[in-house]
Amino acid sequence: MPRRHYAVVFAMTVALLIPTADAGAQTASPAAEAQVAFVFDGPDQEADTRRALFQTEIDAVAGRRFALTYRTVLADYTLADVEQQVDALMADPDVDVVVAMGPLASQVTARLVEPPHPVIAAVVLDPTLQGLPERDGTSGVAYLTVPFTFSRDVDTFRALTPLTHLAVLINGPLLDGLPGLAPRLRAASEAVGIELTAVGIDASIEASLDAIPDDVDGVYVTPLNRFAPEERAQLAASLVERGLPSFAYGGAEEVALGFMASLNVDFTESLARRVGVYVERVLLGDDPATFPVRVVAGERLVLNLATARALDVYPPLGFVLEAELLGASMTPPGELLSLDDAVLQAVEANRSLAIQDAAVAASAAQVREARSVVRPQLNVSATGLLVDSRLADVSQGQQPEWDVAGTLELSQVLFSEGASANIGIQRALLDASDQSRSAERLDIALDAAEAYLNVLRAEALLEVQRDNLQLTRQSLEFAEQREAIGTAGPAEGLRLRAELATRRTDLIDAFVQGEAARLALNQVANRPLEAPFTTTEVVQADDPELLQSASLLAALIVDPRGFARVRDFMVEVAIEAEPNVQVLDASIRAQERAERSARRAFYLPTVAAFGQVDLSIYEGGAGSDLGPMAPTVPNPFWTVGLNFSFPLFEGGGRFATRDRVSAEVAQLQLQRDLLVQQIEQNVRTQMQFGAASFASIQEARRAADAARQSLAIVTDSYAAGAVDVTPLLEAQNTLQQAEVGVTNAIYDYLIDVKRVERAVGRIEALATPAERAAFEARIRDALRSDSDE
Question: Sheet harboring 402-415: ordered strands across?
């Protein structure tokens, strides 16, 4: 929890306590000396740190009126030694206040009747279980009940992984000193259908693990601060080796050691502040029995995903999204992908572009086909004949019974208007196909850029929803604190828990939107649809420099006159560079060539030269040898010729062809005019959209700033009891909507910039740095020339 929220919770407590303290201050001496004695259950790996924190908080409050000194007493983790150490402190006249810093010491001190010194038992586990009076004014002891979150933790634990038999690891001395603790835990566990075994942890953690039954399927770890972090980390590793999921009471620090999960927020700082206030009050003479006793536990789920995966545990999506993740990321990081990378991968691998590549290749082949008609044609053929022998006999050697002959033919078109026209038409159509590919390339680049930016948008919105959920959780902590000090009932907490469930749903929805955006980007780039990747750009809502650098457009938007001039310039560039215009230009060239050919067909013939060589390969049978009087045929023999052809009448087909292609030329020219008009409209429209979305960013930020300030005011009012939970929720929802508005405004602008680039016929990611600089120089030159005029 942010420090500001701890401060609010502390302020709620102080607001309840300060009036009494001020009343007593009138009789206290500002220079009075006082000694505060800390008593610990035994040597503790974190005792020095906690003692320093408590001492700092006591100095901050009570140190304003008293000159404080401190002493520390360590027992040996046995109830008898704790009682002996407490008795010694009670008999020591130099001691003014005793602060019990462990559950055993708190158990002993909280049950004292009319102690000689004021006592603050800071770590009471369960007043009822321990037989402690609650605010009856007879004990003379102030105590604080640390959050008993076992039932809540077990509910969360079994939502993460199935549980039937739970082992609870507890410090052995605590288990012995509080004989009612194990039955209390067992009853809470059995109430939800889970068997429980309490395992005392004594001098050796590893030896104590042998007491865990074989059929246990989960382990709950209570605070084991008497052991070093290294020993607790080894405990976590041992549980993983045994295949046992673990849930720690102690919060994120324990999860970082290797335990699978925890739900508690470290409340030590809040507890220390409360003790500081109580020390001052008892030194001022207030009755400790009147002090509030309850400390509220915060909730923040922490998951060690590395541990979970080692145990083959896969928590539900909602928990993973809400949790602070340690040990591993939710998904494999995958390839590091920038905006330019995404665009370049898409234009290299997109399947639609591959289809266009094939179309260009087909058009190139059609050009070669057209050329082949006017190039030499060489054919070879062979014919074998078997004729009736009677016919062969009377043919006088002209047709033998068996005859195999070959022919070699060579032809060359010398002039053909139709063939020449077809070559020109196919070349123009190749240009059109190539320009269509360029247009598709730009469209795919835009799709990839939009898809990438939508991934960034989804990631940003996921963080907004996660922050909103944390705000709701912090508000729940405030509500529970209000209930603890008696300024509110349970209805507020229940209302906020319902709101918390709604926020989890919103978080899941935001995550799914992000996954859909990732699928869309992978599809455009022709990557495996679920291939993981990590984005490199993160646009922060308070990072105007990054937005300004997105395009020269941002700088021009703030100058209306320059923006108007650059729109005109961009229209000229777009018409010049737009591939679809060039597609139509190529199509018009093709049809114009077809039109010329149709007109020439009325008076131009087709001229071709040809030659042929015939060779008799084999003759046999009847008629193949008729003696010296039979006529002889040269073998081989050749012929050459020249052919002129001109159609005289085709039923009016030539007139129809001429009229058709003339109409098609006119149609294409009209289509070009319309396309140019649409391009101009699109350029001007997209630039206006870009200007509007850029202006929306600042307004969205103003709305978010105002909503943030409003929430701070309402939160303070709620903490002071001036308003109920409804205005708090309304303020949170307003802030969430405003932050969503900022995120959408930023990414709407960035996408509008990419759409302007596409409208102009150039995507920045496809240009080299030199090309980008040259283009911006052209814009500045155009602006200067317009201003000179």
Answer: 377-386, 402-415, 606-620, 637-645
Give residue 743's identity as a one-letter amino acid code.
T
**655-701 tens-digit pLDDT:** 888 888 889 889 999 998 998 999 999 998 988 888 888 888 889 99
DSSP 331: S
> What was the pLDDT predicted at 31?
53
Q: Point out the residues of the chain with pLDDT beneath 50.
A: 1-30, 136-139, 541-542, 545-546, 548-549, 629
Q: Note the pLDDT of residue 6.
A: 40
Buried-state track 387-406, b at ≥16 Cβ within 10 A, e below 16: beeeebeebebebbbbbbbe
- Going by C-alpha positions, the residue among 296, 274, 9 that lies closest to residue 120 is 274
Helix (H) or strand (E) holding 184: helix 181-190
Q: How do beta strands 141-145 and 119-124 pair?
A: parallel
Report how far residue 588's alpha carbon sits from residue 326's, in angstroms, rounded to the nearest whole number: 64
Instruction: Give SS3 for 383.
Output: strand
Q: Quick one: which H or E segment has residue 325?
A: strand 324-326
How far from chain centre, in Å, is Cα 421? 56
Which backbone phi and psi does 646 adopt, to 5 degrees?
A: -150, 120
| Token reading at 506 | 């919103």
Q: How far apart are CA 198 and CA 172, in angstroms?
A: 10
Cα four-point dihedral sign 739, 744, 745, 747: positive
Question: Which amino acid is present at 524?
Answer: V
In angstroms, the CA 343 to CA 346 distance is 5
Identify the pLDDT of residue 28.
Answer: 43
Residue written as token pair 């059929």: 215
Q: What distance in Å separates the CA atoms of residue 693 and residue 714, rounded to the nearest whole number?
A: 31
Residues facing residue 40 across a β-bridge: 74
244 vs 767: CA distance, rounded Å? 56
The whole-model pTM stands at 0.74
Nearest to 300 by CA among 515, 508, 147, 494: 147
Closest listed residue to residue 617, CA positions, set 361, 310, 352, 402: 402
Q: What number of H helices and E strands is found in the chain?
A: 25, 18
Please give the mean pLDDT across all residues of the chain. Answer: 82
DSSP bridge partners of 248: 221, 262
Rounded CA gap, 285 and 88, in Å? 23
E strand or H helix that includes residue 9: helix 3-25
- Cβ-proximal residues to 468 (8 Å cutoff; 6+ apart), any chain: 503, 506, 732, 735, 736, 739
What is the per-residue pLDDT across 532-570, written as a single tens digit (0 to 9) for each?
Answer: 888 886 655 445 544 544 555 555 665 667 777 778 888
Q: List C-alpha distances in Å: 262 to 149, 160, 194, 245.
A: 11, 11, 19, 12
**Token digits for 611?**
């030659």
- Listing from the earlier edge strand, what are the strands of the sheet with 66-74? 66-74, 32-40, 97-100, 119-124, 141-145
CB neighbours of 195 closer than 8 A, spacing ≥ 6? 164, 165, 166, 189
pLDDT in the model for residue 85 = 92
Buried b (16+ CB within 10 A) or exposed e, 602-638: eeeebebeeeeebeeeebeebbbebeeeeeeeeeeee
